[in-house]
Structures are given as structure tokens and as C-alpha cells.
Amino acid sequence: MDAHDYDVCANAANRAVEAVRLLSGLESGKAPDSAYILAAYDQLTTAAYLLHQIIPWTKEEKQ
Predict the structure, then answer these.
(1) What single-letter DSSP state applies at residue 32?
(2) Over the stretch 14-31, which tens digit does the pLDDT of each residue have?
């Protein structure tokens, strides 16, 4: 794994942790539940996109 891959993985992990933090705030009364869910979804899809840059997901990409 090179430095770029490490940075991408670290960024994706940070986004996943942020998603968990947001989801743990459900029913806190600070924001509507839907706002927390949408924000967590955004963090997780961004993490997936980042990982897709370094990990091929389909047979065609692996070739």
C-alpha cells in the first residue's frame, strides 16, 4: 500500500466514524432523525467512493 492508498483509507475510515457519530445522535433532540440519517448516508457513500478509487469492485475493473 502506498502513501496515497493509506491516505484514502484513513479518509474513508474517518468518514465511517463520522457516520457512526451521527447515527449515535439519533433521538438526541438536536436535529430531526432524518437529518442525521441523511448526513450519515452521505458520509458512508463518500467513504465507499474513496475506497473504490483504490479497490476494484467488479471483474472488469480488476483486469
Answers:
(1) -
(2) 999 999 988 887 777 776
- Which pLDDT tens digit goes with each residue over 34-47? 888 899 999 999 99
Which of 12, 16, 14, 17 has the alpha carbon at shortest distance from 51?
A: 12
Q: How far apart are CA 45 and CA 14, in angstroms?
A: 13
The residues, any chain, with a CB within 8 Å of residue 13's CB and separated by 6 or more, are 47
Number of CB atoms found within 10 A of residue 40's CB: 21
Find out whether 23 and 37 touch, Cβ atoms under 8 Å.
yes
Q: What is the pTM of this model?
A: 0.73
CB 8 within 8 A of CB 51: yes
